[in-house]
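Example 3.2
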Amino acid sequence: MGLHFDQPWLLLLIIPAAAWLFWAWKRTLRLSGPRKAAAFTLRAVILLLLISVASGFAPTFRDDYRAVVFVADRSASVADDASIAGWIGEALDGKEDGDRAGIVSFGRTAAVERPLTTEGGAPALRAGIDPVYSNITDGLRLAASLLPEGGRIVLLSDGRGNVGDAIRQSRLLRSQGIAVDVVPLASRAADDAAIESLQTPASVRLGERFTIELEVASTAEREAELRLFENEREIARETVRLSSGVNRYLFQNIAGSAGFNRYRAEIYMPGDHRAQNDTAYGFSRVEGPPRVLVVEGEPGSSANIASALEASLIPYDLASPEQLSVELADYARYDAIVLNNVPATRLSETVMERLASAVGDLGIGLVAAGGADSYGLGGYYETPLERALPVYMDLKGRRQMPSLGLILVIDRSGSMDGGKLELAKEAALRAIGLLRDPDTVGVVAFDDSPWWVVEPTKLTDRDAVTAAVQGIQPAGGTDIHPAVAAALDRMLEIEAQRRHIILLTDGMSAGNNNYDALTAAMNEAGITMSTVAVGMDADTALLKRLADAAKGRYYYTADQSTIPAIFSRETAMMARTYIVENRFVPAIGQAGGWLPLFSAGVPAVDAYVATTPKETAETVLLSPEGDPLLARWSFGAGRSVAWTSDLMGQWSTEWTSWPQFPDVLSAWVKWTFPQFSTDPWLVKARLEGGDAELTITAQGAAGTSNLTVSLTGEDGSEETLRPVPVAPGEYAVRLHNARPGAYFMQISESGDADGAPSGGSLAGFVIPYSPEFRLAGDEEGRALLEEIAQVTGGRMLSPEQPGEVFRIERIAARGKVDLTRGLLIAALLLWLADIAVRRLSLPWNRIAAALAGRFAVRQGPGADAAGATAWSRLKERTRSAGEFYAGGGIRPRGLEPRKAEDKLPDVRIGGTDGTDAARAGPSATGSAPSNGSHSVLPDAGSPDSGGAAGSPMERLLAAKRRGSR
């Protein structure tokens, strides 16, 4: 035996309890004697009982036993319950007295069939279990809650758990000191066929032929009938010969109508054991015909492209560069964009950013066709579109390049403040980036007078040149002539094969100077000059005249973001090496899937724009110099193709007249079509214990809108759901007890304060039948059971030996006697006794005396005689007092009348215990009066007394005086 306290530190409450009892004892004056002692004794015992209950007091005793909880798998994949119950009953026959056992069964969830008890005998498994799922995790968790440390679990299962994480739960059991013995059960053995999967493309085009793939598993070789439905319409029926294992079947179908199409496959096999796994579901979204946007640099230059698209039944729209939108959403309705010889100088920086985003983010295809205004010649160097295309715009590694001399004349007047000057500096840096180290560059900035930012120098220190250009600050007015003259003077000193000046300004020149001499000197020295007018305030007439006179090009732009492209274009055109004019037959490189297009050979090409292929691009066709003529690659979520010759027929006459040209061009365009759905939302479904967990993820930038989902089930039922945000751009919603089938959902955004829908899109997902009905082998489940036993330190028990269950070590434990209820009842009864002692008016002294007399030691005869004498005197005095107050003449002894001349004693009124009478001296007892002493009552024989006994009033006053003593 021993003692146990759950909270031993609560025993410290005895100290304040004892202090309170001591304080209360001293303060309580109403109770006295045995009554007081009894009350405080009861309270002390009550407090001690309550403190014992609070601290968890319990006597302990040694109790060694075995504790086992059987966890029975009652899911649909295992044998019947009767055989499992019989096995557990046989195992219970082997337990000894004092051993304890419990039973837990599980399917979708777990339930206690029998708590941990010493009861034996075969159990009846009657708990309500959903057998459609197998939740081993929940069964182990519930069993562990019944066991003490050192207990054991016996798991009877086929190991085909499909809810939760059984291995993770096993690790938790190991940390709790609980081992799991496993008894592997065989799955139900019967003839069964199951459709394991139905695969359809997520998205197809209207009129497109596609393949539907079925996987059918069977436990027997037998004939069966497969049926395939599209939107409840049977589209295929076929008799097949199933072999044992997995069988695959392919069906061809044509997308006949746009929208979402549901597909359902069914199999019928004679003697099939289960019907739950005979149906599978799928869906496809049939989109309308693809649409292509053709952007042409020159009106009417895309006739060959249009003819090829029309021959392939691909609708298209024509647009000029200036008509392109700056809104990304406007490009989402196209599947591909074709840029036909479009210069970057006619595309704003924002438009190029949107086009690159349409390819990289939305997966829209991009096809770039060459010409004199394309690629490097079009000013695409270091632009967003260069990032999206498979080729670089500069000529990396080319050795035979003419030496170049370039001077940039940049207006830095006050009107250039803000974005204009910053873009001008960016343009200068792009132009410098196209030059080689042996080339010469100079930069002069001007306001009222010219200022050399970079003296004409070789590009041996590019960092210094870059820093100097970035240091240009706006100030002053505008005077063009001195700046151009200074640039010409220094250009005459530069020795280069090609020398060029680029003048940029946004204002009117202050002076009215003659520029003819300057342009004449340029022509004589072979120097060219191009001019760029920015905005409506520029002197466009002067700048155009200067460009024409200096044999350069004049540019006017109202969009300052095109300035960098203009400078890049000018620098590329100055080299005059980008256009390669040489008739040749292209060589075939990395053609891949396009190789059949060129199986009969390829036509010759007369010219192309030289570029450099990117490292990860596929060069399909090459020139004799190794330059790419046709290249392709993937950029982000999209694809792009670069054709460096033209499609107008000037450089590629044989190509545009080639009979296979429409098929070849349409193949290029189709290759760039989106490879995935460009819907703004991606929906994924995960089945967990009968519930479907849907994850809705925003494609692209995550919005802050609330979502509303209108769900349409397989049977046509509709339901409205509110997804919960779980992460930026990610939402989750749960479907409880989801039925198998193909589901469609309309996702609506409501970002307004009033919650009105602001947009929507369609999506779909499939919920399959429960994995409990899959035809998986026993090997997979046995591997899981072995791992559970290994992780927890348990045993692999044979189904033929149930007697091995209780052959385990006992748990060395100590039992406890729970006294909580008894202690509380005792405290309650003592509390009632405490109330009785304090509140009931009983002769407690006589009770105490009687109790004391019962247990006191008997005294001698002398003591009894003395007590009798004292009792007689007390009765005599009581009788005398009664007669006196009743009006009789007999006065009690000690109250005889005094003489009239006697003085009254000094009486202090208010005493309650008779001490004043004692202090009065012998006069109060009837002895001879001393000097100065008087009787309290007047003498009965005096004239003032009114008679021997006195009047009633006098007797009352006398009694009052006596009572105050």
